[in-house]
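=== RUN LOG ===
request id: a7f3
mode: sequence -> structure
chains: 1
length: 443
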Amino acid sequence: MADKWLWMSAGALGRGIAAGEIDPVDLATVYFSAIKAHPLRDRIYARLTEARGMAEAEAAALRAKAGTRRGPLDGVPVSWKDLFDTAGIATEAGSAMLKGRVPDSDADVVANATAMGLVGLGKTHMSELAFSGLGLNPVTETPPCVNDPDAVPGGSSSGAAASVAFGLAPAGMGSDTGGSVRIPSAWNDLVGLKTTSGRLSLRGVVPLVASFDTVGPLCRNVEDAALFLAALEGRSRSADLTGASLAGTRFLILENGYRDLRDAPRAGFESAVERLRAAGAVVERAHIGVIDEALAMSAILYTPEAYATWRDEIEAQPELMFHEILERFRAGGRFSAADLVAAQQKLAQIRVEYHRLTAGYDAVILPSAAIMPPKAQKLLDDHDYYVTENLLTLNNTRIGNLTGGAALTLPTGLPSTGIMFVGPPMSEERLLRIGAAAEAALA
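=== RESULT ===
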């Protein structure tokens, strides 16, 4: 039975604790034992937080016995991407520049989740300073992809995805600036939720581009995504998913997401769309020109802020960085302040137009990634290939960040392919209901 726990959803584990069938201490012990015994452990976890986690599990067990559980996830383990501050525990964001960085306090979302009874397993590896969608990190570790041992897992929440896909956490908490929750979720057959910018606190989260940084879970199903969203906000009540149906829903396939779309992601997406139609959804198609304008401005919108945030640390020790990541950061120094402000003003106009054009739909849908997970060694050996694949990886997910809304990726059933649902700002609960109905249709 204990081995079965490693593959149960977080919601199911929480119900087992509530029913007295699972003891949180036993559950945490099973997970820590599995992690320590796993041959890929050091490629997935940067460090374990066993002392803290076991103390949290013991407290959860006492609450369960007393009938005072704090919420549906009280006593359920979770992994944390290594950019969430944890008091007294190193938080290094996948970078040698931050080696030995030990914060004094928890990030707000960690504090909220801990208050809801979540049990921290450890900190997971990630792309260096979160600045890549590939998940390749030769400086610390490149976590594995569950479907291809030679491929990258997607980033930047690479270890977060691997911790769940390999049965070493029920869910992983990650961040998403341009696709960093959704790409590793899609490539490892998981559900990933990108929240609206500003919905979840970024205090205590190592920044990349604060204007676009968001926090979100990578997990086994849509119910878990809803439960973890609530926990990250310090709430026990999550979105009501009961009775969710696709009957009468209207989806817009954003044809901009077909740019350079390769065969396998196309097949997974189109198969998923047919199942949505069979479940009662109306699906239309359109190309929205302003999205192309927004994508064309991505470098101006992202890299100057990223470089401004990290310039002093980078230029003090540039030799510590993976050269591909270093080059991406330094690209931000080539733009002027006027370039950035003009792009930000233009993006604000684009968002208004985009939301006007899509207001009549329940969600915009598109393939989560245009490509399959690339081979890690080829990315290391071929600079042009690295640049091309990284940009293609993030092409579709960035649309959700640029338009400022919420986004949810679900597995299509074809390995390492996903279908993404994009909604307007603060539409998470509505999007999760759509996701729950779509999940049933895709099963």
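=== NOTES ===
Residues 337-358 form the longest helix (22 residues).
The CA atoms of residues 14 and 73 lie 5 Å apart.
=== END ===
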